[in-house]
Every structure is written in structure tokens, then in C-alpha cells.
# Entry
Amino acid sequence: MDSRRPFCIVVSIALVFLCAAPGARAEEPYREKWRPQFHFTPAKNWMNDPNGLVYYDGEYHLFYQYNPEGDKWGHMSWGHAVSRDLARWEHLPVALREENDVMIFSGSAVVDWKNTSGFGKDGKPPMVAIYTGHHTKKPLQNQHIAYSTDRGRTWTKFAGNPVLDIGAKDFRDPKVFWHEPTGRWVMVVSWPVQRKVRFYSSPNLKEWTHLADFGPAGSTAGIWECPDLFPVPVENKVGEKKWVLIVNVGSGAPAGGSGCQFFVGDFDGRRFTAEAPAGKGKESALWADWGRDFYAAVSWGDVPKDDGRRLWLGWMSNGEYANDVPTSPWRSAMSIPRALTLRKTDPGWLLVQRPVNELERLRGESVEVRLKDLSGAANLAELNKVTTGPFELESELEPSAESVCDLKLLTGTAEETVFRVDIPGRKLTLDRTRSGRVDFHKRFPGTASAPVRLLDGRLKMRLFVDTSSVEVFVNDGEAVVTSLILPTAREYCLDLRVTKGDLRTATLRAWKLASAWTAK
Ligand code: FRU
# Structure
């Protein structure tokens, strides 16, 4: 038995005892089994896509697809929360509700600084939400607007809705932004079955003119949903930006099911032109995340210029099994917020995602372990003192050319979540087949692989491990794997073992992460 085991067993017994102790309430809000502690979740019921991400007056707004009436998809409305630091969220009342046989599907929100819509009041700009009206009694989706003059607290649907209607059954998820050079609003909206996104412009958010279409291109196996279009800074090129077009796909992602692809190119205010590769087919697609659980990712508008970051997050689930994930009384979480940059490599662009720095405020006690010339199993007993709950781990490995090693999380007597670093195979594979509850859907267990490379002979991995998810950011975010896991054993041991070759050095540093629901 290795030295970690007794410690883990003691922690596990203590946790089991604490949870069963008289007076401990299993259903205390945000303490339920699998309740994420630093990822956003609704207090109860079903959630899917992030919507209406916009910054205004010191607050990051997060609206989201929400069922106010149940814990499965249905009665789609916009739930609402705000945060001042992207780490801690305050729940607000449902912003937009299903009404008159029209559900409130995904969309965006803007601050109408010039009051082009005329909805402003007392010299203050209105917030305007642009969303898809999904008609439940006829095969129709069209675009609607609603406005708020009290910092998003209450909303009025526009009497002239819809503002854009092409008579289509599938036509949804408008993302709107102000295009400064042409002095007008631009909408990118998805035409899912056609595998196209359409661009429109408007002087006032009420009248829209068709500009151009993009697609089919990249991954076309699944329907196209939740597009976004924004400029992203290019790394190591001061002041240089490229336009990135995001297209989420309902199926056909690398690890199966839904996923998020992107295109890099230019936007002239009318048309998006992708740089190669933008051919057809899965091989030519560029993917934002290699895990199973990152979908409908969209970005925040109006982040202050002196901040300058392009921030986004995604829905941390997969259309294949989202309705069946066995959490209660809520279902689904958002990923952690991430800041985007572009990295040029041979052969192409990488969309680099870094967890927002604000999450560092959740860091607590930390331990660092430095290892040399490792083959076989590492002794991580010290690290395991801080990985007894949600944690962050930074690791840097210096492997030999033939190295294969397994970094295992949440290992216990019967469960483990395994990251296999395969240097000759140039890939990182997450295996969640033995990660805990996996039997609720046949598509849940399995593996997901990301292409990885060594930089200066090293591989960096930064992991965020919450009660029911793991996100790994490789080489400062050039490859990301986001995955749900549902461990049952409450055993939190980390394990690192080299199965081929060796690691010349390995540095691992872990931090306890505080619960965002109680952090000050
Ligand atoms: C993506 C999606 C969107 C739609 C919304 C409905 O997950 O299908 O295209 O607007 O969910 O909830």
C-alpha cells in the first residue's frame, strides 16, 4: 500500500462521518452532493446555454436558458445572475419568461449607449436583449427584442416583435454587437439546418438588413447553433487582432456529441472571410475544447476598453445526455470564465483560453511538490493534504521522448479519473469510464483526447477540479479539455505514475479552492 492510502482513507472516513453527523443537513443549499462550489449553477431546475453576456456598470451579467418549472429542458426562459468579479454570483429573478406560446430561446444583450433604440430613460442607456422567439404552436423561430432601464432587473418585451422573421422553422441564437467602423449594429445568427450563419445590420436594433452568409464550412455533421463573432488579440503581436467566428455544433464534435468550433479571419462589417483551413469536413475544423462538456460558448460584450479582455464561458454539458445527469435539485453548470487570445502555430491558429485571474481569489492553502527522475509512482502525500475538496493544480512535466504517464484524480478504491499524457502519441486523453456514476446514459462514459506538444521540452497543465467537473488547460490554454465527472467515493487522492520512459522533472502545486457561494 503506498503512503497516500492511509491518509486518503482517514479523510474519506472523516467526510462520511461529517456528512452523517446529527445536525448536518444534506440538502443545505449549495452543499448537496455534486453541487459545484466555484462553477455557476442555478439554485434549482434546468439550465442550458449562457445568454445575454454583457458588462454594465460594474456587473457582469449572465443570463441563461432556464426552465422555471422543472429540472429537464422545457418552458425556456432567461434566468439571470450578476457578478462583480466573475468568481462569485448573485442570483436574480427570471428576466424573460415564456409567454403566449413563445419560448425565450438563446440570444445576447447589449448596452445601447447611443440610445439608437429610443428605449433609454433619464439620459441612461437601455440594456436591450435580442433573443429567439421559439413558437410552440407553429414551426417558427424569429428574432425578438426586450429592454431594461434598471440595470437588467426588470424587462419589457418590445410591442413590435418580431424584429426579424424569415419564416423559418430553425433560425436562432442572435448575437449582436456594435460595429464601430460602420456605426451600426451587427447580428450574427444561426441557420442551423443549412449549416450557415447569417449576418444582418441595423441602425436601431428594430430594423434589420441582410448582409451576407457564411458556411457550410468546418464541421458540418451537426446543426449549427449559438454563433459569436469578435476580435481577439494575437499573442506576441502588440495591438494586432483577428476576427474569430464561433459556431457551436449540435453533434460531430471530436469526443462525440455537441461541441464548439471556431474560424479565424476578417470581418469588414458585412462579410466574414475565413483563413484556411475552412474547407468542409471534421478534419479541417478547429475546436475550442476537446472535452465532452463545453457547448454554446459565447462571449461578454462591453467589457471596458481599459480591461480589453475577450471573456467567455460555455454550458458544461452535452446534448447527448444533459437531461439525464443525476444532480438535484439543479441540472447543469457553466464552465469557469476564460479569457481568449490567438496563438499562431505551424500549421494554424489556436484559440488560447486562460481561466480568468479573478478565480485566484478563491485560492487557499497550497502545497508544492518537486520530483526528479521519476519512473513508476510518485509520492504525492503532501499534495493530497490540499486536494480534499475542490482544488486547482498547476503542473509542469519534463518528459523523455518516449514518456507515457497517468495523472489520476479522485482516485479511491474503486474510482479514478485519468489523464494520460502520451508524449510519443502527442496527445492527452481523459478517461472517465471509472470516474464514478457513469451508468445514467450510455454516451456518458468514455474518453476524450486533445492534441498536445512540448514547449521547451515541457508540458504544462493547469487543472480546476470541482465537485463534479474537471477542466484542464494545457500550455497556458492552447488545448482545453472540459469534462463532467460524478465521483461517488469522496476520495480525493491524486496519483501520478509513469508507465513508459520517465519524467526528468515534475513540479506540481495545488491550492484548495474556496466555495464561491461563501467566499468573501
Ligand atoms: C443550444 C440550443 C439553442 C437554442 C437553445 C434552446 O443548446 O438548442 O440553439 O436557442 O438551446 O434552449
Summary: The first strand starts at residue 45 and ends at 56. Residues 48-49, 65, 76, 105-106, 132, 172-173, 225-226, 296 surround beta-D-fructofuranose (CB under 6 Å). The helical segments are 4-20.
